[in-house]
Hints:
Blueprint (H helix, E strand, L loop, with lengths): L5 E2 L1 H8 L3 H11 L7 E3 L2 E5 H21 L4
Antiparallel strand pairs: 1-3, 2-3
Amino acid sequence: MHDKIYLNAQDLMVRYSIARVTLWRWQNGENPGFPQPVKFGKRRLWDLKAIESWERVKVASSNQSNKVGEVA
């Protein structure tokens, strides 16, 4: 059985080179689809698989946007 891996706010800030306020904005609707944290007592943690899934969606939508303006 595999245990889930969780990231804390500091992990996410380092991963994306963002400030705490940016992470707060992402959680509060500025970045649609960004996974919400799971609360363990006072700690907020993000499921790594949910974060990776969100990243794949962002990359796919970015790639799709880039293809719109391409000339064959």
